[in-house]
Write a structure and sequence with these properties.
Blueprint lengths: L4 E9 L3 E4 L2 E3 L4 E2 L4 E4 L2 E2 L17 E5 L3 H7 L16 E4 L11 E4 L2 E8 L4 H7 L4 H8 L4 E7 L1 E3 L4 E6 L7 H8 L8 H8 L6 H11 L1
Parallel strand pairs: 7-8
Antiparallel strand pairs: 1-4, 1-8, 1-13, 2-3, 5-6, 5-12, 7-11, 9-10, 9-13, 10-11
Helix pairs in contact: 5-6
């Protein structure tokens, strides 16, 4: 049986710059030439503007599937952000697997590093502002084209043009599409038992375990 994998189109980093009013953001990331060093905090050279809601152990690296870009181009015809990787502030622009294929706790090689899926990306107003639209965030909530976060299990380095290979899958029934729809997309009302299970799932990011507990009552 072939090992599931993703190919890396680009690895990207960003630093905080003025974004809207007094707000700063590092969402406008740029591809890196050559290898990128990966530490427990993510890619060396990448920074966050809001450490309360971004970065940290459970949000060290953000991946957004380039597989979604054709869909977004159809929905946002001619939008220049969609001409190249990085439209959604991702650190990893990948192909081959989406939220429906990626499961909580999946471990992948990332060059010489090892990373683990911790949860999906909950969209915020910054995506609407970045795209100059009012419904990008709402569209992500509706479609679960959210992207995912990794925590770093082993430090190392990686480069674009290589593969991320799946090396462990402890929770095959819990893909990120399902979890996102339960916790962010309103699905908790239809499957409270699943939400209670997520509340006690150690591999789920702490913030989403807290959300599951609140939704479970």
């Amino acid at each position: 049986m072939d090992t599931p994998f993703m190919t890396i189109d680009a690895l990207l980093v960003g630093t905080p710059v003025p974004f809207r009013g007094d707000d700063y953001s590092a969402i406008a990331k740029r591809p890196v030439d050559g290898p990128v060093q990966i530490t427990w905090d993510g890619f060396v050279g990448n920074q966050v503007a809001d450490p309360i809601h971004h970065g940290g152990w459970d949000k060290a690296i953000h991946l957004y599937p380039q597989d979604h870009y054709d869909w977004w181009r159809a929905a946002r015809s001619g939008h220049p952000l969609l001409d190249a990787p990085g439209a959604f502030g991702e650190n990893i622009a990948s192909r081959g697997m989406t939220e429906a294929d990626l499961c909580l706790g999946d471990r992948f090689t990332l060059g010489s590093a090892i990373v683990e899926v911790s949860h999906g990306r909950q969209p915020c107003w910054k995506l609407d502002h970045r795209f100059g639209a009012r419904d990008v965030m709402a569209t992500i909530v509706k479609t679960a084209r959210c992207g995912i976060y990794f925590r770093v299990i082993r430090e190392g380095e990686a480069a674009a043009g290589t593969r991320m290979e799946l090396i462990d899958r402890p929770l095959p029934d819990w893909n990120i599409d399902r979890i996102f729809r339960l916790l962010i997309g309103g699905g908790h009302k239809r499957d409270p038992h699943a939400v209670r299970a997520l509340a006690d799932m150690p591999l789920l990011a702490e913030a989403w375990r807290d959300r599951a507990r609140k939704l479970a009552g």
